[in-house]
Amino acid sequence: MSLILGALLACAAGLAGTLLCPEDSTRRSRLPLVAALLIGGLAWHAPAQADEALRGPARVLDGGTVMVGTRRISLYGIAAPDADQTCSDAQDRTYACGQEAARVLEEHIGGAAIACEARDGTTGGAVEAVCQVGDDDLGAWMVGHGYAVPDRARVPDYAKAAERAWGRRLGLWSGVFQDPAERRTRQADVVPSHIISSARAD
């Protein structure tokens, strides 16, 4: 969409510049060309807007983040474990739940192209979007299989999928885990090392 918009704006700028700045007898005005390049470049680098479609093969970064082309996309309305997050299983054994969430998402997508629709907002520099592979909403699928938790305030429909996953003890719900959104919030709060040492000493 950005490419099409950029081309249209570039053409419009060129036409406007030609009409407003006609050629003189010795040289052609450079304003239309400069305006076209400037506006087209701005459109090309513009961030994804709400409802902008992002389609193509996906590369999974973690259970809630994918790359489509050069776009980093965060699945809207969910929080999945970061790639380095660990959890405990039903036998209280530690396992790499972040890597497991990424693996199941990657397997579900397979080699298929995904289609995403951007929403307002970004998360950590990633475009927030509702993404689908076929008819499956990837956010709902991850929540329904227990590998992500929903943001109930933003996507209430995902809460039902979470309840089913909890009831069946699927994915993260089979053991003990820290809410991924809460974990990120805590990690964002930098605590001085002497406070951490003091707390451990107690």
Structure description:
β5 (87-88) and β6 (94-95) form a beta hairpin. 41% of the residues lie in helices and 24% in strands. α1 (2-20) packs antiparallel against α2 (31-45) and α4 (138-144) packs parallel to α5. By secondary structure, the chain is of the alpha+beta class. The chain has helices at 2-20, 31-45, 97-109, 138-144, 157-167, 180-188, 193-201; strands at 53-62, 65-68, 71-75, 78-79, 87-88, 94-95, 113-123, 126-133, 136-137, 149-150. The protein folds into 2 domains: 2-45; 53-188, OB fold (Dihydrolipoamide Acetyltransferase, E2P). The N and C termini lie far apart (57 Å). The chain is globular and about 45 Å long. It has 7 helices and 10 strands. The strands form 3 sheets. It has a 5-stranded mixed β-barrel with strand order 1-2-3-8-7. A two-stranded antiparallel sheet has the order 4-10. It has a two-stranded antiparallel ribbon with strand order 5-6.
C-alpha-based Rg, rounded: 23 Å
SSE order, one letter for each helix or strand: HHEEEEEEHEEEHEHHH
Helix content: 40-55%
Helix/strand/pairing class, anyone? alpha+beta
| Percent of sequence in beta strands | 15-25%
User: What is the CATH first-level class name of the largest domain?
Assistant: Mainly Beta
Roughly what is the average pLDDT, rounded to an integer? 77
Point out poorly predicted stretches. 1-22, 24-46, 190-202
What would CATH call the architecture of the largest domain? Beta Barrel
Total of domains: 2
Give the overall shape. Answer: globular
Arrangement of strands in the largest sheet: 1-2-3-8-7
Number of distinct beta strands: 10
CATH topology of the largest domain: OB fold (Dihydrolipoamide Acetyltransferase, E2P)
Instruction: State the helix count.
Output: 7
